[in-house]
């Protein structure tokens, strides 16, 4: 696979660049620190658990463009290995969302149904599968080989690679311009956004659109979603910072739409500068972020956030200790990437949470990163049911609780920790 200069530096162990903003080079002001954290998707075999790499997970806000970002980063090859275990199709909610996204693309793509769509971070092809079935030209770009094989089995065209300026040039030489470039919950995972935008500039048609979805900083701070901060989420986007980022790289943010997915996300639409009149929605978002204090240094908002997160840590650990002292049984539900942040920040190990149940075969028989809690298949949850279940996959709570209705009918209670610790 090809690599950018940024990726090559990462392989050599390089970190941020003296805590300067990766986008504009401005000064980064540290606003939150979650301490030492493991690579979030490094679900290792028990005998390899001590080999999982750790890093400092702290975030800062740029005093110039307001972009919130991690101060240090994990090299991409550590996070996105060939055996990367996440599968987007594992959730009915996610599948339905991306089916809707695909249908919207088919109806609105510049170039119509004859247009060419490229997805950055296509995972198991959950979105592109619908385009493929509709006969629309497409290509997914994703470095995880195993996920790509799943996508190919569904008829999706995939290039196993990192998207960057070099790969974009290769794609353009083979396929021509892309009418739409799409990315969901991936763009914020990439440290070298200069190379991404250079690639978008090469590949995108003059009237094309770059559309990406990602978690909303405003929602993260408002609802105390501290577990949305983990190694893969290098950037925490706001509309203000994305507007500044697009302008810095010669593009323009022309639309923004709030989505309920993942507790609150924003769909951003970027075009070449001057190609489209920006929607009034963009300035409405920016005005609200200024009113909320999210377009400055973020400091006041993060002071409140930090206090709330510390309280969550204390309350959650206290609750688990009480459950254990009462002789009751509790298990984790959903070995998510986010669970690594919760377990390691709160210091929760197998003494307080003996196992985590998960339906992903690639995670079963392994242990959670850092905390080394066994990951078990779903039958460990049902036979017998525990007294409590700590729900890490809270963004799928409605779907999961409907599926596990019998658990509650038999007296089981769910533990959730955002926006505060509570049971259901």
TrEMBL record:
Methyltransferase putative zinc binding domain residues: 21-80
Gene3D superfamilies: 6.10.250.3100, Methyltransferase, zinc-binding domain, NAD(P)-binding Rossmann-like Domain, Vaccinia Virus protein VP39
Domain of life: Bacteria
Pfam family membership, one: Methyltransf_14
GO molecular function, one term: methyltransferase activity
Domain C-methyltransferase, residue spans: 260-419
UniProt GO BP: methylation
Cross-referenced InterPro entries: Methyltransf_Zn-bd_dom_put (IPR013630), Methyltransf_Zn-bd_dom_put_sf (IPR038576), MeTrfase_14 (IPR013691), SAM-dependent_MTases_sf (IPR029063)
Keyword presence, Isomerase: no
SUPFAM superfamilies in the cross-refs: S-adenosyl-L-methionine-dependent methyltransferases (SSF53335)
Keywords: Methyltransferase, Transferase
Keyword check for Secreted: no
PANTHER family recorded: BLL5978 PROTEIN (PTHR43861:SF5), TRANS-ACONITATE 2-METHYLTRANSFERASE-RELATED (PTHR43861)
Name recorded for this polypeptide: SAM-dependent methyltransferase
Record organism: Mycobacterium dioxanotrophicus
Origin organism lineage: Bacteria, Bacillati, Actinomycetota, Actinomycetes, Mycobacteriales
